[in-house]
Design a protein that fits this description.
The complex is a heterodimer of chains A (250) and B (268). In chain A, 80% of the residues lie in helices and 0% in strands. Chain A has 250 residues and is mostly helical. The chains are: A mainly alpha (250), B alpha/beta (268).
């Protein structure tokens, strides 16, 4: 394990210890937040009892649908836009300001349109994720050196073969970054929507526990979301590091 | 080795005006004949259209006027079969190993996978890269990466190899050694080599014939026969007439280069 990694772990451990100390000393009262060791214990009990597995499954499925649809659509739109300069120039200001738009503001409208089911939650996750994918895909495609495109022509590749064998493999690190962003946004979109208004899901359960002062449920669920998003992100980061190391860019 | 393999007749290239600019008359009219099996070099001041000339012969861009033929057939919008190109820039595929890079050159060939692997391995050995066959380009030096690109080109056994300043990014010693390597490959493959370079000594050392181009729009202003034997290497620079040859090239080129320096120049 590298020294840097040890420091990173030490910082997180120190933060948890600080919280533990503050909770045990009563600086943070029990109603606000239980001590970290209590949260971990509640979490273990929740997992062992199999509580909320349906809720977790439902939320994760929605995150996955939002992520996959935003990712595929985003990569395809990004690839098409890369070949249409004018359309791209027209849309550029929208992409640049997109994340200034509070997408959640549209949530009530989506509920009116599609009902209080999974649809609006997935749609919010999709809307949050897609532009990051489009922009990152465009960013990667912009960096393909012209000499590689010429090499493709010299080797008799058509447009589709060039995309498959040259431009997309070249962009692989960018496409992985896009996946990381899309996953994070899909999580935020889905869990956030459930929190605001839903009939089920992890976000809904957290919100429900919060309004009922049920810290023994709320904090383990928060911990679960944290662990899930960190795990997914680490997996993609590891893959990204392998790709970049191979290209001498680590 | 006297039959013309490539013929350019009255070839001109004018690039259309960019927004707010003027059209650029990059090249020509130019007439050149490249003989089958010879080592042909083109030297000229920067911005004279050397690389445009290579792209025209490669079929990567179309002439505004004039005709270009490869083995008696007009070159269209596609790269003709039997033509390989090595560019100045690093064109290695960073996501593929050295072996996979070289084998990529055989994509268009209708061969069994084992045969492709065998041919790639043979070329890799010929280029002295066997030890690095499983390495990725990022693990290699600039000179080795360029050798990978050359290997990827010659594995397809092209009859005409176009080299666009392939040693431009390399240090002097590596360039001399790569020159030796290219001469060896030229003899072994029997292919015609067309080399674009800005280095006069490189052209004088490698080529059978050298065309000197004028400042933009590039035209052929001199054609020099070196008269070197086919069996040669970088030690040819020790010959007495090597100096006279480079002097002649420089004499023709000096005035053209000064013209280029007088104006804001672009790429080659």
């Amino acid at each position: 394990m590298s020294k840097l990694r040890l420091y990173q772990i030490a910082v997180v451990a120190a933060f948890i210890l600080l919280l533990e100390g503050l909770c045990l000393a009563g600086v943070i009262d029990k109603i606000t937040m239980p001590a970290p060791h209590v949260i971990v214990w509640d979490f273990v009990r929740m997992v062992l009892a199999g509580r909320y597995f349906d809720e977790i499954g439902k939320s994760l499925a929605n995150v996955l649908v939002a992520f996959a649809s935003a990712y595929l659509t985003g990569v395809i739109i990004g690839t098409i836009l890369h070949g249409h300069k004018t359309t791209r120039e027209i849309l550029d200001p929208l992409f640049a300001t997109y994340y200034a738009i509070p997408v959640f503001a549209f949530y009530p409208l989506f509920i009116v349109m599609f009902g209080l089911g999974d649809g609006p939650q997935v749609l919010i996750g999709f809307m949050l994720a897609i532009v990051a994918v489009i922009v990152t895909t465009l960013n990667g495609l912009d960096r393909v050196p012209p000499v590689l495109k010429k090499t493709a022509r010299v080797n008799g590749l058509n447009a589709l073969q060039t995309a498959r064998h040259i431009t997309l493999p070249f962009c692989a690190p960018y496409l992985l970054t896009a996946a990381k962003l899309a996953l994070a946004y899909a999580f935020i979109g889905v869990i956030g929507s459930e929190f605001i208004m839903a009939r089920s899901g992890m976000g809904y359960e957290i919100s429900y526990a919060y309004t009922n002062f049920d810290n023994a449920t709320m904090y383990p669920l928060i911990l679960l979301i944290l662990l899930l998003s960190i795990a997914a992100n680490s997996l993609l980061s590891r893959w990204e590091r392998v790709l970049l190391a191979r290209r001498g860019q680590n | 080795m006297s039959a013309a393999q490539v013929t350019l007749r009255g070839v001109t290239k004018v690039f259309p005006a960019a927004a707010g600019g003027k059209e650029v008359h990059a090249l020509g009219p130019i007439d050149i004949e490249i003989r089958k099996g010879e080592f042909f070099a083109v030297v000229g001041p920067s911005g004279c259209g050397k690389s445009t000339l290579l792209e025209l012969i490669a079929g990567l861009t179309a002439p505004t006027e004039g005709e270009i033929e490869f083995e008696g057939r007009a070159i269209g919008q596609n790269v003709p079969d039997g033509v390989g190109v090595v560019f100045q820039e690093d064109a290695c595929f960073s996501w593929l190993s050295v072996h996979e890079n070289v084998e990529f050159g055989l994509r268009q060939k209708n061969l069994a996978p084992e045969e492709k692997a065998r041919r790639a391995a043979a070329i890799i050995e010929m280029m002295g890269l066997t030890e690095f066959a499983r390495s990725y380009p990022a693990q290699l030096s600039g000179g080795m990466r360029q050798r990978v690109c050359i290997a990827r080109t010659i594995v397809a056994e092209p009859r005409l190899i176009l080299l666009d300043e392939p040693f431009g990014a390399l240090d002097q010693q590596t360039r001399l050694l790569m020159g030796d390597e290219v001469l060896r490959l030229w003899r072994q493959t029997g292919a015609t080599v067309f080399l674009i370079t800005h280095a006069l000594d490189e052209a004088a050392m490698l080529a059978d014939r050298i065309v000197v181009m004028s400042a933009r729009p590039g035209k052929a202003i001199d054609l020099v026969e070196t008269g070197w034997p086919r069996e040669r290497d970088s030690r040819i620079v020790e010959r007495e007439n090597f100096g006279a040859l480079t002097s002649r090239l420089w004499k023709t080129l000096r005035e053209e280069s000064l013209k280029t320096m007088g104006r804001a120049g672009g790429g080659g």
